[in-house]
Specification:
alpha/beta; Methyltransferase, Methionine Synthase (B12-binding Domains), Chain A, domain 1; Rossmann fold; 2 domains; five-stranded parallel sheet; 9 helices; globular; metal-binding
């Protein structure tokens, strides 16, 4: 099945092959969401699990991530096209000092699969840049990622910057990344955190309409 081929190409870090297979899957009539979940996400999650168990090294993970990005570039225009769902706008980014985008890429893909419009600020994003994006884009949700214990404290700086600019109450803040715990999220004043991207996707599908409704009421 073509999804198995996509998963294999990601595992091998074959970006061009992943790109072509994703195009083929679309041509064969598979939906962008099914390609995302059964091919790209499954592939990168297998690599992520192997990395957690020290069965692959960082270069292999980076190659796999680049492959997933290649496939995502094909279906992203479809996933981000305006829909009747109206499932809000989400700004995502990894904090200053952190150059990891593996988790960010998965979260971005999951948010898109839930029907939301996603603005990706990338990695190494300063608190002021996060605040500028919130002011400019007026998102419903801000998702802040940190993959390192040495950078997770920057999440608090982002929230403090939003408070200083009187933007904090305008947006729900989700924080995530390997070192992030529920206790830490509460300590810095974030609204939500999740163990993995699938939890996040399920939460969005079940609750984003409620979040948007409560935001409209509060305005």
């Amino acid at each position: 099945m073509i999804f198995d081929d996509i998963i294999h190409s990601i595992a091998e870090g074959e970006s061009e092959e992943t790109l072509e297979l994703t195009k083929q899957a679309l041509a064969q009539g598979y939906s962008a969401n099914s390609i995302l979940e059964k091919g790209l996400i499954t592939g990168i999650n297998i690599i992520a699990e192997k990395y957690r168990n020290e069965k692959v090294n960082v270069p292999e993970v980076l190659m796999a991530t680049h492959s997933m990005h290649a496939g995502l570039s094909v279906i992203e225009p479809i996933l981000t096209a305006p829909t009747k769902k109206g499932l809000g706008k989400i700004v995502v980014g990894t904090v200053a000092g952190d150059l990891h985008d593996i988790g960010l890429s998965i979260v971005k893909a999951m948010a898109m699969s839930a029907g939301a419009r996603v603005i990706d600020l990338g990695v190494n994003v300063s608190p002021k840049k996060f605040a500028r994006a919130v002011r400019k884009e007026k998102p419903d949700i801000l998702m802040i990622s940190a993959l390192l214990t040495t950078t997770m404290s920057v999440m608090k700086d982002v929230i403090l910057e939003l408070k200083a600019q009187e933007l904090r109450n305008d947006v729900k803040i989700f924080v995530g990344g390997a070192p992030i715990t529920d206790a830490f999220a509460k300590e810095i004043g974030a609204d939500y955190t999740f163990e993995d991207a699938f939890q996040l996707r399920d939460f969005l599908k079940e609750n984003i309409s409620k979040l948007l409704a409560s935001k409209r009421v509060s305005q």
